[in-house]
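re the bet — no i am not wrong, look at it urself. input seq straight from the record:
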Amino acid sequence: MKIKSELRKAILNSLLGKYSLYILQLASIAILARMFTPDVFGIVAAAQVFVMFFQMLATSGLAPAIVFQEKVSAAMRDGVFSFSLIVGIVLALVFVLIAQPLFEWFEFKEGQVVFYVLAPCVLFSSLAMVPMASLQKDAKFLIIARAEIFAEVLSLGACIAASFYWSDISALALKFLLVPILRFIFYYFSSAKTTIGIPSFGKEIAQVKKLYAYAKYQISFNILNFLASNLDNILIAKYFGPASLGVYEKTYQVMRYPLQLFTFAITPALQPILTKYKHEPKIVFDEYFSVTYKLALVGVFSSSVMYWNSRDIIFFLFGEQWFDAVPYLQILAISIPIQMVLSSTGGIYQAFGQTKAMFYCGAFSSVVTLIAIFYGVYDESIISLCRALVIAYCINFMQCFYVLYKTVFKGQRKVNFIKLCALLSLGAINLFFEPITGVSIPTYLDSFLNITITSICVIIPLSVIFLAMRKTKF
């Protein structure tokens, strides 16, 4: 079947590119976590939350809209590129103006310079939107990965060099500043080999209106999703302090690695391929659930290993100064299977042009997530916040697939969803056992062996389930 081969090729290219990047990022984070304290990471992370919000506004959800278009003219390409320049400049200036009030609101004792240093990130992220969309539309995921790797290596080197001459906060901020700048440079010149072509500044800025019929709900969804995903960081920085945010942010980062390695690597490949078959929902339905079954099993594996080896993983990646993250990781790890499947739904909504349904779905999910965050802050406990988030993810999963069946998979078999739920529930078995974390400082060899043994013990039964699924056409 043509869709199967196209989807498999796109996913494989995306996986190869993303895996190369994530291996490098793991090494980068391991180095930086040993160079800088949780306080420093917390201050930079707090500033980054607002930078990412402005970056999201700058891109305006137009990248998926460009991918969705069957044909993008040179006038549209250049007009949207000019629009991205104007929006990027305006938002970067606005961020500079509010930098000091933001810093004062957090009541940090140091680090105001970070809020100014990161402002240009908004401009270059906006400029990178059109070149990146042109690469995504042609499924050139390996080229996108090379850009990410190029930016990561050079920014890491600059950060390490700067740490000898600058303050820790300034050196770390430089690393996050250089990434979008270098990424834009590589995207821009690489887009010359795409069907859309390399963009230049054009006069027909009004061309952007043609994309907003698709993008308006995407923008609204992005805003709601951003608030739900990042309000916890903002409130933890405000009410618990930068050190607590540094620890929590690293915990969340580790928990999301499986999502990055699998779901976030697969999802970009879904939209450009499945969009070609948007008039054949039955075909898309079968292929999508074939992917989600595998994602569910990988999620259960990742969740189990993190639950049982949270202390070893934290020590192996970041060192003993980050052990406060262990109990948070154990709790959040339970949600990994559900998050992996849930994160893949965006590509389906976008492929079928159902961004309005995705917005309503995101609105509900955001409200549920925000309630969970406010509860954790009100209880003055990050542990309570983590538990509430796990419950919120479960509710959001059920609601999202309900909407998916109502808007995209109309009349398709619901038994596939029941099978998916059965696979996801395997991860809950871990809750019946209490992992032994120990109190002594492990060695790197001990941590590696513990993780390896647990991985083998988990992967054997899951492999049996996977083989049984293939034989019975699950």
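see?? The chain is about 80% helix and 0% strand. told u. also The radius of gyration is 22 Å. so pay up
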